[in-house]
Amino acid sequence: MVDFLDLPIDLLPCILSFIVKSNHLAAAARVDKTWNAFATPLLYERVSIYSWHKEGKVKVLQLFSTLGNHLHLAKHVRRLEIRDFPKAILNSEGDIPELVLRGLKNCRNLHSCTWTRDGSLSSEILGALSSISELRELEFNGHSQGQYDPRMLCQFKALSKISVIMPSAAVISHLLSMFEVSGCHLRHLTMICKSSPVINDGVLESMASSLTNLEQFYVTGCPKVTERGVSAIISSSQPGLRALGLESVSPRFNMSTLAHQWGNTDALNKLRSITLTISRSLADVEGWTKAVLNLLSSSPLERFQIYATSSSSAGAASDAVVPHRASGSLDSTMSTFWANLVTAHGHRLRRFSVHRMPIGLASIHEICSRCPNLEELFLVAEPRSLDALPNSFSRAPKLRTIHINYPLEIRSTTDSDDEGDEDAAGAEHEDPRPVLSPSEALALMKRCGTSITQFGCNTKVWQVGRAISVEEDGAVTSDVVLLPYESPDIPEQFLVVRT
After folding, report:
1. Which of 140, 106, 129, 120 has its CA nearest to residue 56?
2. β-strand partners of 456
3. How far lies 85's CA from each of 49, 79, 100, in Å?
4. Rounded to 5 degrees, what are φ and ψ at 250?
5. Distance between CA 325 and CA 246 in Å, rounded?
6. What span, in angstroms and rounded, lies between the C-alpha atoms of 276 and 164?
7. 223/201 Cα distance (integer angstroms)
8. Residue 140's Cα: distance from chain center in Å?
9. How does DSSP assign 431-481, residue by residue?
10. How confident is the chain (499 residues) per 10-residue block, as mean pLDDT?
11. Contact 197/224 with Cβ under 8 angstroms?
12. CB of 47 within 8 A of CB of 79?
């Protein structure tokens, strides 16, 4: 057997690329000079500060001290995520504010920056970021009042991706001015509000003419956005939208009108991802589902995501899940919708994601059986159905990621998808297993096939690995094991609380 030290040095970057935890990369960088040369760029390529990090203020100071005083390290930073930043730093005396600015400017190869903590963004920080010629992606907090001058946004000339959270009217106004100058570079635009009227059809129509190369467009929590504004965005995109997100928009949003205008055209013939919300108070669910199918009729859809909202008001957020048995006709309508969606797009679908809306076992089985390229599945299911789910999951040969949500209190009723259900119709009970234990999760994963690499239930997420052992006779065996979640990426289902 070849000794590890005898392996070609060219393999080291490939080996190190599988290390995701920063402390493991730091250890690799201390092996010797050769390892340091390959591990250090990976260690600093992505730097993140989150609110749950212990001693966050100390880590922020250490980070910017390193970036500000060591240019040879700062040059490796390609992605900077500041999701927590002590506000007092900006107002502190001494060299700390200047150290932060110097650290940012030293990140000469910075490609993507996230700075979302409310009250932590300043005009000086925006100025430092705008001076970085390589910067292409910016996610920032749009609450500018008393924090920064929104006119600074016009200094960014080459951004291809912008995500703005809770924008003020002033920020929206200057984004419009910014788009007039450099909107042709923009490929991705996300605007996240919390029932704010600042983004409306007029705003979308005003910016649409400047966003001629837009490929991905997402709006969340914008109760003044209807199909009129979205149509303006669709019509202005010359390459055609590849991703569209319409979450908690106006309760008067007419999906049928949007589908009638664009469903049978080439405007959405490149759309591969769609994210929608459906209100529990929607009067005509069947008409809405038919309109969605019509809208997607010419799209090569690969990612389908849907969230159920608690009411027709975009601002009424709730952790409640749409009752599984609110009405038999609703369940029947949605089951027909899932089936028709899979019939039209199942051969391409890679992600199927449904939140706050339970799916019957028969529908889950159909999704897994008829989507041969399915890689990610997010669903809501009653705990009593968990034992039956692996039979469905194992039918999806490429399924890698599964996340199951279920409410703590569920309404158990006769399910047309589950013949032979012994629970009495209308009976209510609290599930005795609000969160799966590791042993229960492991038992499920052992029945789900060999392709699964990540599994989650409610607030728990595990990596699914394999333990390799060699028997006395030389036979090699493997067994499924659950491992701690190590990726620096936040599991997507935890990123945003949907309104």
Report:
1. 120
2. 403, 461
3. 8, 16, 11
4. -60, 140
5. 26
6. 19
7. 10
8. 16
9. -S-SS--HHHHHHHHTTS-S---EEEETTEEEEEEEEEEE-TTS-EEEEEE
10. 74 91 94 94 93 80 94 97 81 76 97 94 95 97 94 96 96 96 95 93 97 97 97 97 96 96 94 94 92 97 92 40 52 94 98 92 96 96 90 96 75 40 38 72 93 92 92 88 87 57
11. yes
12. yes
**Beta strands 401-405 and 454-457, pairing class:** parallel
The radius of gyration of the chain's CA atoms, rounded to the nearest angstrom, is 25
Residue 431 carries which side chain, given as an amino acid letter?
D
Please provide residue 455's backbone torsions phi and psi, each rounded to the nearest 5 degrees: -140, 140
- Residue 186's φ and ψ, nearest 5 degrees, are -75, 130
Tokens, residue 227: 């199909």
* DSSP codes, 60-115: HHHHHHHHHH-HHHHTT--EEEES---THHHH-STTHHHHHHHHHHH-TT--EEEE
Structure tokens at 270: 């490149």
Euclidean distance between CA atoms 349 and 342, whole angstroms: 8
As given in the structure block, the two tokens for residue 488 are 């620096």
The rounded distance, in Å, linking the Cα atoms of 362 and 199 is: 40
pTM higher than 0.85: yes
Residue with tokens 């759309």: 271
